[in-house]
Write a structure and sequence with these properties.
The protein is an alpha+beta fold. The chain folds into four domains: 230 residues, Immunoglobulin-like, CATH 2.60.40; 94 residues, Carboxypeptidase-like, regulatory domain (Immunoglobulin-like, Sandwich); 231 residues, Rossmann fold (3-Layer(aba) Sandwich), CATH 3.40.50.410; 97 residues, no CATH class. Helices cover 16% and strands 32% of the residues. The chain is built from twelve helices and 38 strands. The strands form nine sheets. The chain has a nine-stranded mixed β-sheet, with helices on both faces. Strands 2, 4, 5, 6, 8 and 9 form a six-stranded mixed β-sheet that branches. Strands 31, 34, 35, 37 and 38 form a five-stranded mixed β-sheet that branches. The N and C termini lie far apart (82 Å).
């Protein structure tokens, strides 16, 4: 069978595919190489398997994503038939699906002058009879494959690209940021129709209707073939030695709610920094909401109030696994009893047939402080919609990784759409810098157009900043309060991508935004880039715990960017970032944690098992003697927080290098807090010199009346005064 005949059978739909990989059981694309320069021969190989389709006909859409993020659809068989961005047009209408054996469908010489960067081609077979606006939703796809290549270039071939990026100028000076990516005049453009195919002229786009008969005419009925070819604009990548390719960045993650005891130890160690807005989470209660079959009720409505109150203190959604973590102190429900009202997400108005009302006695909980509640007449169902918001720090310090992040995020979004085609999806973007920069916050809101989001992402550049903290609180506020989030059984995720914390004066404001996200049922997944320090890690991990997300962090395994600080966690696995973020989203949609396959794990740290860090097998001997620690002085600190929090800082000395803290026990009798710190000896060979120690111990002050209180730590005392009651 000739190439000409095969092109006719396939309606020429794969004629223009640039690719390095991409496959599905029903359709696959491959290429003879993964990177190219001008003058290289590019060969495209396509296969199609009719047996994998239930449908007999499909509408065909072919689009190319250029390095600047623009997605252009084709309505004919030639590069001159590429349409402007955002204009979705069909390549073929009601194509009769047929089997196409592995075939080299196209071979051509890559022309000079194309802007360097990553090109992605997407081929979609969709249900017939759709409005073109419906093509953006995966639930309407039969199959989509997307494949990429990296086109390398040089300054001599594309000087405008390098000069506009501030890499080099004729005078050797860097240029300031410009906005000319959006409007490139004719002097700075390269036409698409410079490519020449090695296929016979009879199979070219201009003669497709002559070679493919009636089928070919249906592939070309949506466009104007006489218009001028569309130009390409430069791509926002730093240089031809660092072309961002998806799957480059590496990352790990920790679910602090799964490792809550370790997280509490981490929190206690941070108490020495008085600038941090500490949150008392030690009283966490786990609610597991299930149906009659024991399955978690995704996005069950959760309302928590104090007895005799008509307005709930907490009004939110459980996770997609039916789990909700209640933090009584943080949530302002500090009484001994709380009222719960639980309902399925589709029954938010409170139908008596499915709403469950009960009173929870917080002082009579089991040791693990967990409660399972069965909702009557409820049927567990996975989320039917997905909303993902990206909040990204675009200050200058993010420059070393922003280009890669943009490429990764575009690939992640495309992969999620392809894997979850029955879920309706929306994606949003907010970028922020800092005061006195060109902008503080740019809010793009939500869109169901992947093309729009990809273009928005690709237009971002890392500029400004100056000092270390940035406008993180303001960025979160825009994402949470301005965007129109949907309610109901929706998987709601917010990825906070940053390398710096808010300014000290805005740390509390950030926690207020986290509280808003918590009430809206939005899971925050912070992603720490290079440069993240202790304060940023603290704020981001708090955001993840309080909203039932996870803390994600880039690692040095990729070699991209500056050095990445090791997080204060005892175990994690390293995978590529795109795999991790896709897996996080898939876990939310599946209502259960999904672990990486072994072949995706690049490195393992500590004793990791399904997200839980296992304790060391080496335990101290049970018969070790203990004694009271030698405490020299203490000081009581009252934190500027709501609700009020009090801690005592104890300083002392170990008698030698083998003495370690064994236990810290706190008790209260009236207005007297008694703290006992005991030590144990570990090891046989010890240094004889005294070793200083400092321990920070939180005091449980909720429910106390205003007054003066005394703290005794191993015989050393201090006093503090509560100016207001903490009973409310």
């Amino acid at each position: 069978m000739s190439i000409k005949t095969r092109l006719s059978q396939a309606l020429c739909i794969s004629l223009l595919v640039f690719s390095s990989y991409g496959y599905a059981e029903s359709l696959s694309l491959s290429l003879n190489d993964s990177s190219f320069t001008a003058g290289d021969i590019l060969e495209v190989i396509v296969t199609a398997n009719r047996d994998e389709f239930e449908e007999t006909h499909a509408d065909v859409y072919l689009a190319v994503q250029t390095p600047n993020g623009s997605l252009h659809y084709l309505n004919g068989l030639g590069l001159k038939f590429i349409n402007p961005p955002n204009k979705i047009v069909r390549l073929a209408t009601a194509w009769p699906i047929q089997t196409l054996p592995e075939t080299t469908l196209l071979a051509f010489e890559v022309p000079r002058g194309l802007p360097p960067g990553t090109y992605k081609w997407e081929l979609t077979l969709a249900k017939t009879g759709l409005e073109v606006s419906e093509v953006a939703q995966p639930k309407n796809w039969l199959v989509r494959v997307s494949v990429t290549l990296v086109l390398k270039s040089s300054y001599e071939e594309w000087p405008e690209f390098y000069e506009d990026e501030g890499i080099v100028t004729a005078g050797g000076e860097a240029l300031e940021e410009t906005s000319r990516w959006d409007t490139v005049d004719s002097a700075d453009t390269v036409a698409f129709d410079g490519m020449s195919s090695s296929l016979p002229p009879s199979t070219s786009a201009g003669s497709a209707d002559k070679t493919a008969g009636d089928s070919a005419s249906s592939c070309c009925d949506d466009g104007d073939f006489g218009r001028e070819p569309l130009p390409l604009s430069p791509s926002p990548f730093p240089d031809d030695n660092e072309m961002p390719v998806s799957g480059t960045l590496t990352a790990g993650d920790i679910d602090d709610n799964l490792n809550f005891a370790a997280f509490q130890r981490y929190m206690n160690k941070q108490l020495v920094d008085s600038s941090l807005p500490f949150v008392d989470m030690s009283d966490r209660v786990t609610l597991q909401i299930v149906d009659d079959q024991g399955l978690g009720v995704s996005n069950a409505r959760v309302r928590v109030s104090l007895p005799q109150e008509s307005v709930p203190r907490v009004d939110t959604y459980a996770g997609t696994d039916g789990r909700f973590y209640l933090f009584p102190t943080f949530d302002g429900v500090m009484g001994s009893q709380v009222d719960l009202q639980l309902a399925p997400p589709e029954d938010e108005l409170g139908s008596p047939s499915s709403v469950f009302n009960t009173t929870l006695d917080l002082e009579q909980l089991a040791e693990d402080r967990s409660v399972t509640v069965t909702l009557p007449n409820a049927v567990a169902a996975l989320p039917d919609s997905l909303e993902v918001m990206f909040v990204i720090d675009t200050t200058g310090s993010m420059g070393d990784e922003l280009h890669y992040l943009v490429t990764e995020l575009r690939d992640i979004i495309g992969a999620v759409q392809a894997r979850h085609q029955q879920v309706r999806m929306r994606f949003g973007l907010v970028v922020y810098r800092d005061k006195r920069d060109t902008y503080v916050v740019r809010d793009f809101g939500f869109t169901d157009s992947l093309n729009d989001l990809q273009i928005q992402l690709s237009e971002q550049k890392a500029r400004g900043g100056g000092d270390y903290p940035e406008a993180m609180a303001e960025g979160l506020a825009a994402a949470l309060n301005k965007a129109q989030w949907r309610e109901g059984n929706v998987a709601r995720l917010l990825f906070l991508i940053a390398d710096a914390p808010p300014h000290d004066e805005n740390l509390k404001a950030m926690l207020e935004q986290v509280q808003i996200a918590r009430q809206m049922g939005i899971r925050i997944y912070p992603l720490a880039a290079s440069g993240v320090g202790d304060k940023a890690e603290f704020m981001m991990r708090n955001a993840g715990v309080l909203t039932q997300g996870r803390y994600l962090f880039l690692t040095d395994d990729s070699g991209v960017g500056s050095s990445h600080q090791e997080p204060s966690v005892s175990c994690y696995v390293v995978t590529h970032l795109n795999e991790l973020m896709s897996r996080v989203i898939a876990s939310e949609l599946a209502g259960q944690r999904i672990e990486p396959a072994d072949e995706y794990i690049l490195r393992t740290v500590g004793h990791y098992e399904a997200g839980v860090c296992q304790e060391s097998d080496i335990m101290p001997p049970p018969d070790q003697s203990t004694d009271k620690a030698q405490v020299e002085n203490i000081r009581v600190q009252i934190l500027e927080s709501f609700p009020v929090q009090v801690r005592v800082v104890a300083n002392g000395y170990f008698s030698d290098g083998c003495e370690k803290i064994d236990q810290i026990n706190t008790d209260r009798d009236g207005n007297l807090f008694t703290v006992e710190i005991t030590t144990r000896s570990e090891g046989e060979i010890c240094t004889e010199a005294e070793v200083p120690f400092e321990e920070v111990i939180p005091l449980a002050v909720k429910g106390l009346k205003a007054g003066v209180y005394t703290v005794d730590v191993n015989g050393v005392t201090d006093r503090f005064e509560l100016e207001i009651s903490t009973t409310d």
